[in-house]
User: Fold this.
Amino acid sequence: MPRIIQRTVEMKCVAREPGRLRLEVVAVDGEPPRESYTLYIPLKEQKMKRAYVGNIPFATTVEELRAWFAPLKIDEINIIFDHHTKRPRGFAFVEFSSVEDFETALWKHNGQQLGGRTIVVNDATEKRRGVK
Assistant:
């Protein structure tokens, strides 16, 4: 019969790589490990629920965008304004209540007309400030 040995293992995250975390063993039962051990843990992809909505007419309001996306459920709409002129820049970010509503918006509303303009609806990817 195999023998079961319980050990307390302390690990630290040393890197976040695309799609996974890299962990290294720092201690086994409070002692430094005799050998170097590395463990990779895959990260679950989080489904996007935030969309970039571009080429919207400058006079478009939050209520008009909400009505245009109806009957999809929306948590939040942010129309982006220029910092200096305080005028709309012609795009917005829309946070949907569910992944299903988000995906429906991508295929149903992308390329449709709003106020005489062809609207672009894409998934919004996060950009870090200062990174080009």
Summary: DSSP finds two helices and nine strands in the chain. The longest strand covers residues 9-17. The first helix runs from residue 62 to 69. Helices lie at 62-69, 99-109.
